[in-house]
Amino acid sequence: MSSPLFRRHFLLTAGMILLSFVVLSAAFVSLSYRYIVQEKKSAMGENVTHIAALTQRMLAEGYDPADDALVLLGPMISSLSDSNLLICSPDGAVLAYVSEEGTAPDLTGCAISSAVAEATASAGSYSDMTDLGLYGQLYFVSGVPIYREVDGVTSVAALVFLTAAAGSLIILWKSLATLFFFTAVVVLMIAFVSSSVFAMQQVRPLREISDVVRRFGMGEYELRADDYGRRDEVGDLARSFNTMADSIASSEQRRQEFIANISHELKTPMTTISGFTNGILDGTIPQEKVNDTLQVVASEAARMSRLVRQMLDASALQARDTVQTQVEFDVAETMIQVMISLEGKIRNHQLDMDVHIPDAPVRVWGDPDGITQVCYNLLDNAAKFARPGTAIGVTISTKGSKAYISVKNEGETIPPEELSRIFDRFHKSDRSRSIDKEGVGLGLYIVKTILNNHKENITVTSVDGVTEFVFTLTRAE
C-alpha cells in the first residue's frame, strides 16, 4: 500500500518494536552472561572452601592429601563439582591433579603461575578467569590455601584449586542466547505482520472517507461514509461526516427550494407588470382601462416590495442566534395594540374577536418589537384564512414560569403533512395560494425565527377547521 500514513504508521510501530527488542537483547546478553559467570564463580568458591576444609582435616590427622585423599576422594569430588581439582605446593608446584572426567593426574610436577600462587597465599582466596600458566585457554579458577601449624607457627602447607573450562559456560550461554534470539525473531515477525495488518485496517477506511469527501464536494450529496461498525475515532469520524453530510444535503435542498420559491414569487408579479406595461405602451389595453391596469401594476410592485422587505427581515433574524437585549414588558398590552392596528382588516373580513386576556399585566422577558411582530403576523394570518362570520380567538394564560399566548381561527383544516412544513420559508399550501394573493410565505417563518432567538417554543394544531397557534414567553415575575 502506497499510503504515506500507512508507511509512517508501519515504520513507527516497527521501529519502536525493533528498538525495544534491541534494548531487551542487549540487557539479556549482558545480564545472562554475568549471571552464568557469577553463578559458576560462586559455586566453585563454595566447593573449593569445603574441599580445603576436608583436606585441612586430613592433613591434621597425618594423611598426605596429595597421595591418599585424592586417590580415594579426588574423582568423586571433581565429578560432583564439575571441575578439575589441583593441589599445589606453596610455591605453585602441582602436587596432585584430578580432571573432571576422573582420569589420572597428567599435570603433576608442573607449576602454576607464581603470581596466582602468591595471590592465593597472601589473600587467603583466589577467584578469577586465567589459564594458570597450565592451560592453553581461559579457565574459571577458585583457590584457597591450606595451613599447617608447627611449634605454634602457622604456615601455608598447600594450595587447593578448582578449575573449569570457560568454553563450556560460553556454550551454555550461547545456547540460551540462540534460543532468545530465535524467539525474538519469531515475535518480531508476528509483530511486523500484525502492525502491517493493523495499519491497513486504520488506513483503508480513512482512504474511503477521503474519497467520499472528495466526491461529496463535487456535488454527489447522496454519498455517505461507512463506519464499519467501529466504535473508535475512525468510526466517530465517519459518523460525524455523515451527520455533516445530512445537514449539508438538507441545506442544499432547502436552498434549491428557496431559489425555486423566490423565483416563482418574483416571476409572477414581474410577468404581470411587464405584460400590463407593454399592453399600455402598444395600445392593446383600452384607454378607459389604463387606470385599472396601473392599479394592478402598483399592487404587484407593492407585493414585490413586501417580498424583498420580508426577505431582508428574515435574513437579519436568521443571522442572530439569540436576542442580545431582553427587557420586561406587558405582553397583554402588546397583543391589545396589535388587535387595534388590525381592527379595520378584521372588520373587512366580517370577523369577530373572542378575547380572553387577564385584567392584570402579564409581565414577560423579551424583545418588545420582535414579539409585536410575532403577534401581528399570527393575527394577520388568522384574519386571512378565517371563515367570514366566525371569530378569531386570542387567549393569554400563565402557568409556572411561562406565559402562553394562543391565536386561533375557524376555517379549513390544514392537513398534517402541511402542518409539519408550515413554518418553512416560502411555504404556502395549495389552499392558501388560491386565497392569499398577497402573501409570500415568510410570515410564519419570521414568527418561528423570532421565537427561536428568544429560546421559546411555538406549536400549531388544526382539527375540525379550528387552527390554533400557541407560543410561550418567560415570565418576569
Overview of this protein structure:
The chain has helices spanning 4-60, 65-81, 114-123, 166-217, 233-281, 290-319, 331-341, 343-348, 368-385, 416-419, 430-435, 443-453; strands at 84-88, 94-98, 126-130, 139-150, 153-165, 327-330, 352-356, 363-366, 391-399, 402-410, 458-463, 466-474. The strands form 3 sheets. A 5-stranded antiparallel sheet has the order 2-1-5-4-3, sandwiched between helices. Strands 7-9-10-12-11 form a 5-stranded mixed sheet, covered by helices on one side. The protein has 3 domains: 4-171, Beta-Lactamase (2-Layer Sandwich), CATH 3.30.450.20; 224-319, Helix Hairpins (Orthogonal Bundle); 327-474, Histidine kinase-like ATPase, C-terminal domain (Heat Shock Protein 90, 2-Layer Sandwich). The chain starts with a helix and ends with a strand. A hairpin with a 5-residue loop joins β1 and β2 (94-98). The longest helix has 57 residues, at 4-60. The chain contains 12 helices and 12 strands. By secondary structure, the protein is α+β, with helices and mostly antiparallel strands.
Short description:
The protein is an alpha+beta fold.
- Helical segment tally? 12
Share in helix: 55-70%
Strand content: 15-25%
> Roughly how many Å is the radius of gyration?
53 Å
**CATH fold name of the largest domain, please?**
Beta-Lactamase
* The CATH class of the largest domain: Alpha Beta
